[in-house]
Amino acid sequence: MAGGGGTRLWPLSRSGHPKQFLSISAPGQTLLQETLSRLHGLGMGGWTLSPPVVVTNETYRFLVQDQLASLGEKNAAIILEPAARNTAPALTLAALQAVEQGSDPVMIVCPADHGVTDLPAMQHTLRVAVAQAAQGSVVVLGVPAVRPETGYGYIRSESAGGAQGVESPRRVAQFVEKPDSATAATYVASGEFHWNSGIFILKASVWLAALQRFRPDILAATQASWKARVADNGFVRPGHDEFDSVPSESIDYAVMEHCPGSEFDIRMVPLDAGWSDLGAWDAVWESRDHDAHGNAVQGDAVLHKSSNTLVHATSRLVTVVGMENVVVVETPDAVLVMNRTSSQDVKDVVANLNAGKRAEPLLPRKVHRPWGWYDSVDSGARFQVKRIMVKPGASLSLQMHHHRAEHWIVVSGTALVTCGDKEFLLCENESTFIRMGQKHRLVNPGHVPLEIIEVQSGGYLGEDDIVRFDDTYGRT
To answer: One Pfam family name from the record (predicted)?
Structure first.
């Protein structure tokens, strides 16, 4: 499930490029890629690992496609939700995809934005859970509740049993939603509760049957949308009009909380693998390695006489002096400084920025596109400067602008340029000018990335001033 917005990790996470597509828990892989990679070792012991199913939305489709391709996932199904309807309809779409060919596989249902530090422990727990789910049970992974946490749901289960060294799946007695701090403290003290990880393991048919039992309205509306689906460019698109009528509900509210005491056997398998939902900056601090003073750093940072502090720097040197329990997040266009205990309040800051129609909550300065990326280096009255990278063999759309002209200067690689009725090559240190209202296109015909500097000038420089005539990626 990869459709969330991740607003509490602003300014690193933006609604147009949220946390599941970022490297947060460890450099080198995004959270989506980490989630997929940790499942690769499960195709053993007589099980066949099917290609993944990723449920996301139109905005993130090319981010998902690119990140799957970089992992070598060529046969994944990418389902695009026509509208945000929470996790129960998302899981239903995945289950309908899973049974499409007449099989009934066990599904490992994972949010794409969680972190895990102990991969062998995670994979062992999943094997136990899959074996239980193969017998028809609904299984949820529960994380040991080591502190009172008001940001998580809780699971109360029966006492443990099973062979020495391996706990048998425990029968779930109750799901409890996010408690207040005093109630959370009593849960932790009792030893009866685990945090709800949001990771579920069950057969596709079991989910569909449970949804039919507890929320037949969600099932019927989602099935109608699935029946009206179309496939194009590697994406599966459920029917838009039909999906508009799907009720919005979470997996927990729709089904899981109703299972204890019902005909559906529901079990919990404890997950002790350094799990975190990375839902806010204090959780990111918890998940990272700390120095002797409790500080966690990513990027170019120097800390002096500071403790229990998180610094995440992306583009420049950050120095922190004499601070305690602080979070500092630096990006090229925004900086966040706050007390770690205020991590949940970041969403309120984002709401205020959205109310003021600010651009910072939507996109970072460096914006990824299916053909590559652009970085808005500088801007002012009637001008904007962008650094643009085009992947080998990729092409921007054939387009024109009503309100701006553009200068292109090739920094590296070779550009194939369409400008009006002319087509020509530009090499390194060569440039061209596109007049306002002139049709144009930029293509990288080479085998190495193409980089150019684009200087825009005009009375309006917004991204919505684009008229597309032809596009490889179906955006006309």
So the answer is: ManC_GMP_beta-helix
